[in-house]
Design a protein that fits this description.
By secondary structure, the protein is of the alpha/beta class. The longest helix has 28 residues. It is built from 10 helices and 27 strands. The strands form 7 sheets. It has an 8-stranded parallel barrel, surrounded by 5 helices. The structure holds alpha-L-arabinofuranose. Alpha-L-arabinofuranose binds next to loops.
C-alpha cells in the first residue's frame, strides 16, 4: 500500500515539475519585424517525379486534368497553402542545366541525360516557359537557380535578359519568337547551388570570386533588380558564410543561402515510416539544430552587415530518409508522417522567430521528393502531414512577428534530451494574434501556460494536427488519415492561456 502511495506522489511530483517548466511569454506589443511569406517557399527539381508526373503531365494527357500540361489537382492544393515562391530547376540538376535546351518548339528540344538523378532521359519538354506558366497558375514568385558549375557567365546573363528585358535585344527577340511578348520580371536568382559539392566542388574562396563575376553580369532591367542569392553553407560550415560575407562586395549580394537536412546518418537514413523512438529522437535532434545554425550564421552576417540588408535564404531544408521500398532509389520518393510534421512545425517556428534575417526558405521538395507536401500516383494525389502544417501556418505569412520567450520541459530519450516545446507568434493587421506550438515529446502530454503581455484578449480558438501513432501518414487509399481538426485543449482568462498539448502535436491558436 505504502509503495502505491509513494508511486502516486512521485508521479504527481513529476507531472507538476513538467507542468511548471512549460511557459511561453508572448510580447504582443513588441512586434517590429514582418515574417516574410517567402519563408514558406518550396523547391522543385528535375528529380524523380517532381516535375514530370508530379507537376507536369504533358499537353496531350487526357487521364489527368491539366492546364497546358500542368496538373490542376496539384496546383489547387498548393494554392490553398498560398505557395509564395518556387525554386527551380535544382538542386544539383541546376548546375547541369542549359536553359536554351528548354525553349522553342518541343520537338526540336534536345534530349539529354539527367546524370544526377538516375541517368534518366530528360526531354526538356518542361523548360522556362512551362515553369513560368506553372508559377503563374500557382500565383507563386519564381526563384531560378542558375548554372554556375557547368555553364557560362554569358549563358546566365542571357537567361536574365530573356526573362526580364523589355526593350530590343537578341534575348527579348528570342522570347517573343517563342510566344511571350512581355518579360516576366523574375526577381529571385540563385547563383549556382551547393558550390562546395555537386555545384563544382569549389573552395569558398574560389566560389566567392566566381560569384562576383556572375553577379556583375546579372544586370538590372527596367523595373526588375535581380535579387542574387549566393550558394551557401551546408549546416554548420561557418567558414563558408564568413568568406562570402567578407569577400563579396555589398552591391553584388542580396541573399546568402544555407542548406540543412534532418538526416540520421547519410549511410543509414532509416525508413520514412517504420522508425523507432530513437530514430525519431535523432531526427528531431538534427532538425532542432536549425535554431543553432540560424543563430550562428546570422551572427557572422551581422558582423559584416549589421543593418541586415542581406537575407539568409534557407533554400533547402527538410527530412531525408531511405526511399520507399520498390521505388527507384535515385528518385528520393519518401512517405511523410507525424515525424515530418514535427520537423516542419519546429523549423518554421525557428524561421518565424528569426525573420529579421531569414527572409526566404524552401522546403525540399514540393511534390514526390523528400519531405514533399504533395504525393502523386498517376491520377491520384494526396497531401501530407507536412502540407497541413504549412496550411495551418499560413496565418503567419506577412504578419508581424511577436517575440516569444519559451521555457520548455525536456523530452528525454536515454541519456539525451531535447526541449519538448517550440513556439512562435505573430499579429495580423486587424490585431488577431496567432501562436503556433509544437510538442515533439512522443509520449508525454505537455501543459503550457502562455502569458500574452500587452494585449486584451477575450476570444480563443485553435486547430491541432496529431494522430494516435507518430508513424501515421496519408495513403492513396486513406488520404485523410492525418488532417487538422478543431482544438479544444486551450482556455483563456485575463490574457493567460492554458494549453494541454498532446504528444507529437502541432497547434495553432487564434486569439482576439
Ligand atoms: O534536394 C536534393 C538534393 O539535395 C539537391 O539537388 C541538392 O542541392 C542537395 O544536395
Amino acid at each position: 500500500m505504502m509503495r502505491i502511495i509513494l508511486s502516486i506522489f512521485f508521479l504527481l511530483f513529476i507531472i507538476t515539475v513538467a507542468t511548471a517548466q512549460n511557459t511561453v511569454v508572448v510580447n504582443a506589443n513588441q512586434g517590429k519585424e514582418t515574417i516574410s511569406r517567402h519563408i514558406y517557399g518550396h523547391f522543385s527539381e528535375h528529380l524523380g517525379a517532381c516535375i514530370y508526373g508530379g507537376f507536369y503531365v504533358g499537353d496531350s494527357s487526357q487521364a489527368i486534368p491539366n492546364t497546358r500540361g500542368i496538373r490542376k489537382d496539384v496546383v489547387d492544393a498548393l494554392k490553398k497553402i498560398r505557395i509564395p515562391n518556387l525554386r527551380w530547376p535544382g538542386g544539383c540538376f541546376a548546375d547541369t542545366y542549359h536553359w536554351k535546351d528548354g525553349i522553342g518548339p518541343k520537338a526540336r528540344r534536345p534530349t539529354i541525360v539527367n546524370s544526377w538523378w538516375g541517368g534518366v532521359t530528360e526531354n526538356n519538354s518542361f523548360g522556362t516557359h512551362e515553369f513560368m506558366d506553372l508559377c503563374e497558375q500557382l500565383g507563386a514568385e519564381p526563384y531560378v537557380s542558375a548554372n554556375v558549375g557547368s555553364g557560362t557567365v554569358q549563358e546566365v546573363s542571357d537567361w536574365v535578359q530573356y526573362m526580364n528585358f523589355d526593350g530590343v535585344s537578341p534575348m527579348s527577340k528570342l522570347r517573343k519568337e517563342n510566344g511571350h511578348e512581355k518579360p516576366w520580371s523574375v526577381k529571385f536568382w540563385g547563383v549556382g547551388n551547393e558550390a562546395w559539392g555537386c555545384g563544382g566542388n569549389m573552395r569558398v574562396e574560389y566560389y566567392a570570386d566566381i560569384y562576383r563575376k556572375y553577379a556583375t553580369f546579372m544586370t538590372e532591367t527596367k523595373g526588375t533588380k535581380p535579387f542574387r542569392i549566393a550558394s551557401g553553407a551546408s549546416s554548420d560550415d561557418y567558414h563558408w558564410t564568413e568568406v562570402l560575407m567578407r569577400d563579396i562586395p555589398a552591391n553584388l549580394l542580396e541573399g546568402v543561402a544555407l542548406h540543412h537536412y534532418s538526416v540520421i546518418d547519410w549511410n543509414k537514413k532509416g525508413s520514412a515510416t517504420a522508425f523507432s523512438e530513437l530514430e525519431y529522437f535523432t531526427t528531431m535532434q538534427r532538425a532542432l539544430r536549425m535554431e543553432e545554425f540560424v543563430q550562428k550564421h546570422t551572427a557572422i552576417m551581422d558582423k559584416y552587415d549589421p543593418k541586415k540588408r542581406v537575407a539568409l535564404v534557407v533554400d533547402e531544408w527538410g527530412g531525408w530518409y531511405d526511399t520507399e521500398p520498390g521505388t527507384n532509389g535515385a528518385f528520393l520518393f519518401q512517405q511523410n508522417t507525424l515525424r515530418d510534421a514535427m520537423i516542419a512545425g519546429t523549423t518554421l517556428n525557428t524561421f518565424n522567430n528569426h525573420c529579421d534575417r531569414v527572409r526566404m526558405a524552401n522546403l525540399a521538395q514540393v511534390v514526390n521528393v523528400l519531405q514533399a507536401v504533395v504525393l502523386t500516383d498517376k491520377e491520384k494525389m494526396l497531401v501530407t502531414p507536412t502540407y497541413h502544417v504549412l496550411e495551418m501556418y499560413t496565418v503567419h505569412h506577412d504578419a508581424i512577428m511577436l517575440p516569444v520567450q519559451v521555457q520548455s520541459g525536456d523530452y528525454v530519450v536515454g541519456n539525451d534530451k531535447l526541449p519538448a516545446i517550440s513556439a512562435s507568434a505573430s499579429k495580423q493587421k486587424d490585431g488577431t494574434i496567432h501562436i503556433s506550438l509544437v510538442n515533439i515529446n512522443s509520449k508525454m502530454t505537455q501543459e503550457v501556460k502562455i502569458d500574452v503581455q500587452g494585449a486584451k484578449l477575450t476570444n480563443i480558438s485553435g486547430r491541432i494536427l496529431t494522430s494516435d501513432k507518430l508513424q501515421n501518414h496519408n495513403t492513396f487509399d486513406k488520404p485523410d488519415a492525418v488532417k487538422p481538426v478543431s482544438f479544444k485543449g486551450a482556455s483563456l482568462k485575463d490574457s493567460i492561456v492554458k494549453v494541454t498539448l498532446p504528444p507529437f502535436s502541432v497547434v495553432v491558436l487564434e486569439l482576439r
